[in-house]
């Protein structure tokens, strides 16, 4: 990061005022989260929300060398000489001293791409060094991450920080990989000091007493992307995991929650990980959006579903021309795996664009790792993805983010956007919605100033039509569309009949289907669309239905399925 970028980033982070009101208020579509929050852990009394500290970030950012009395010389040398970090990012400046010296528990909020990972790894690694425990004393630091890719990235960053201290070992525990190998790694003779894990796989491992035992001396517990982990999808696993760990008050372990977005439920559940006197440290000034104001955010509103894909292609072509093909590195976010496959197919068949790849939860783990690594290394490429890459992933040099259709919620929009303009770099964003979806930029994202854009999509429409006509998985795409928008139907003010009518328009106009794709009866039931008019209901198929007759699949669409 250059000096002027650092100056800019410092100017942005001036948390001198306490936030007023609730800038993170969730859209109305989040009732399930609300219910889940209220169910909470009955035994635990939620703490009253803690007001954010007013920590003014000085105009001259501290240097890492200013911490030489608190940091191990080898660790400091790695930061300055190997990683070439000189000044601290605002979140590091705001947290490191307190985390290192006072070992406070904290809930920390800072914009995407501003160095939160180092802010939690550094104090935790220093604790590991300070404790100087004999080998085989068990895991000192546990970091929990919502996605596998983010867990791998954090593990890499931890290994980078430990390159001059090779006696300390980092392991990962993530789904989709060989569990036995992970187990051997965690329990190996020379020990595992740092474990980075996703919740489901970690809980699986905790069925093994030996692994549970390896947490007996846990010094630090971190939840990265804390608001996601304390959300409905992960809460139950998380509570079970925490029950398997030593009691937090007795063990005196340090707890840290980090995220760019801190939704209200985070403060309600922070006590699961943090001690009662924890500090809330925010480097986002009151009233300021949690996103980088310098990222130009273009909004394209199209009239019909048929215009979405041509508008996507035209926007990508125009941005690619603006940035230059050699530097154009874009992530295209789609609402579901099937829509990501569809958009990927289209973009792969448009000449003149950088190579496109696709990533979502239904891609095999080995492929996910390969695609992630290739995209990280690429100087020019397109990655079509679902929210599996929305949070935390640090792909260098992403010039553009495209969001096609509604994100799951406001936080998802912010985290997706945060894949560009990281660590002081420039970035651009395009958000494409249809008229019925335009409530989202207008109301849910009302704090954001969008620039209206009108890409010339009429000229690409015939080419897109030819590609779409050849696309085979139309039924699957239709079903995924229906499942996703069913979840947003209330916000769109659609009845079930209207939802189906819009889905059918999408099938005919956007997918070029000759007739409404069939949906198995059981799928209609699972989607809660029994009785809705306009569906083409077909009998349940014996087993796997494939893409042929019915829309196939039938698996509920949740975060895990994306
Ligand atoms: N002090 C620093 N100076 C320069 N670069 C830094 C510094 N600290 C971290 N970085 C780099 O900044 C980039 C972004 O950091 P990181 O991924 O930790 O951001 P983040 O705040 O966790 O983002 P997100 O909210 O998206 O998870 C990384 O490439 C990291 O190596």
Tally of contiguous helical segments: 22
Strand order of the largest sheet: 3-4-2-5-6-1-7
**Uncertain residue ranges:** 1-58, 545-561
Q: How many strand units?
A: 16
Structural shape = globular
Mean pLDDT: 84
- Main sheet summary: 7 strands, parallel
Question: What is the radius of gyration?
Answer: 24 Å
Biased composition (Basic and acidic residues): 27-36
Keywords: ATP-binding, Helicase, Hydrolase, Nucleotide-binding, RNA-binding
Function: RNA helicase.
Family: Belongs to the DEAD box helicase family.
Description:
With 562 residues, this protein is of the alpha/beta class. The chain contains 22 helices and 16 strands. The protein has helices spanning 3-12, 31-39, 73-82, 90-102, 116-131, 148-161, 179-187, 199-205, 209-213, 226-229, 232-244, 248-251, 264-269, 308-323, 337-348, 365-377, 410-417, 439-444, 461-470, 474-492, 496-510, 521-526; strands spanning 106-109, 141-144, 170-173, 194-197, 220-224, 254-259, 279-282, 297-302, 329-333, 356-359, 381-385, 400-404, 428-434, 451-452, 518-520, 536-538. Strand 3 (170-173), helix 7 and strand 4 (194-197) form a beta-alpha-beta unit. It is globular. The two termini are 33 Å apart. The structure holds adenosine-5'-triphosphate. The site of adenosine-5'-triphosphate (ATP) has 19 residues, from helix 5. Residues 545-556 have a biased composition (Gly residues). Pfam families: DEAD, Helicase_C. This is ATP-dependent RNA helicase.
């Amino acid at each position: 990061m250059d000096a002027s970028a650092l100056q800019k980033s410092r100017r942005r982070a001036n948390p001198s005022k306490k936030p007023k009101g609730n800038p993170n208020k969730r859209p109305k579509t989040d009732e399930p989260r609300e219910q889940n929050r209220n169910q909470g852990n009955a035994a635990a009394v939620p703490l009253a929300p803690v007001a954010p500290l007013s920590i003014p970030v000085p105009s001259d950012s501290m240097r890492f060398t200013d911490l030489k009395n608190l940091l191990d010389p080898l660790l400091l040398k790695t930061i300055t000489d190997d990683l070439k970090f000189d000044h601290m990012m605002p979140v590091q400046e705001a947290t490191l001293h307190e985390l290192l010296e006072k070992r406070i528990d904290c809930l920390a909020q800072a914009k995407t791409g501003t160095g939160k990972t180092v802010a939690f790894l550094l104090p935790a690694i220093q604790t590991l060094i300070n404790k100087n425990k004999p080998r085989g004393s068990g895991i000192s630091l546990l970091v929990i991450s919502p996605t596998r890719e983010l867990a791998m990235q954090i593990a890499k960053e931890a290994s980078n920080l430990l390159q001059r201290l090779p006696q300390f070992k980092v392991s990962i525990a993530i789904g989709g990989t060989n569990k036995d190998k992970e187990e051997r790694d965690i329990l190996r003779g020379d020990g595992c000091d740092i474990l980075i894990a996703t919740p489901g796989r970690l809980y699986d491992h905790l069925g093994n007493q030996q692994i549970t035992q390896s947490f007996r001396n846990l010094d630090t517990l971190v939840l990265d992307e804390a608001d996601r982990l304390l959300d409905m999808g992960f809460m139950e696993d998380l509570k079970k995991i925490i029950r398997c760990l030593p009691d937090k008050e007795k063990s005196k372990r340090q707890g840290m929650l980090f995220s760019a977005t801190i939704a209200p439920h985070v403060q309600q559940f922070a006590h699961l990980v943090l001690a009662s006197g924890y500090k809330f440290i925010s480097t986002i000034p009151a009233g300021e959006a949690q996103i980088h104001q310098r990222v130009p955010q273009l909004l394209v509103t199209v009239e019909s579903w048929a215009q979405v894909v041509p508008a996507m292609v035209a926007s990508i072509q125009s941005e690619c021309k603006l940035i230059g093909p050699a530097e154009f590195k874009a992530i295209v976010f789609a609402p579901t795996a099937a829509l990501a496959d569809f958009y990927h197919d289209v973009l792969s068949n448009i000449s003149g664009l950088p190579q496109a790849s696709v990533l979502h939860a239904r891609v095999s783990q080995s492929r996910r790792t390969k695609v992630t690594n290739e995209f990280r290394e690429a100087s020019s490429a397109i990655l079509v993805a679902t929210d599996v890459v929305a949070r935390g992933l640090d792909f260098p040099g992403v010039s553009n983010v495209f969001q096609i259709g509604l994100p799951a919620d406001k936080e998802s929009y912010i985290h997706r956007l945060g894949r560009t303009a990281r660590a002081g770099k420039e970035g651009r964003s395009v958000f494409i919605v249809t008229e019925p979806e335009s409530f989202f930029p207008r109301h849910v994202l009302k704090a954001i100033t969008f620039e209206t854009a009108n890409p010339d999509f009429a000229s690409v429409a015939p080419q897109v039509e030819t590609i779409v006509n050849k696309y085979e998985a139309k039924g699957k795409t239709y079903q995924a569309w229906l499942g996703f928008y069913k979840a947003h139907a209330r916000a769109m003010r659609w009845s079930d009949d209207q939802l189906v009518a819009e889905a059918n328009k999408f099938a005919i106009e956007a997918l070029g289907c000759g007739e409404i794709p069939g949906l198995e009866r059981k799928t209609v039931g699972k989607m809660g669309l029994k009785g809705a008019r306009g569906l083409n209901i077909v009998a349940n198929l014996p087993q796997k239905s494939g893409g042929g007759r019915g829309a196939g699949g039938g698996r509920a669409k949740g975060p895990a399925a994306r």
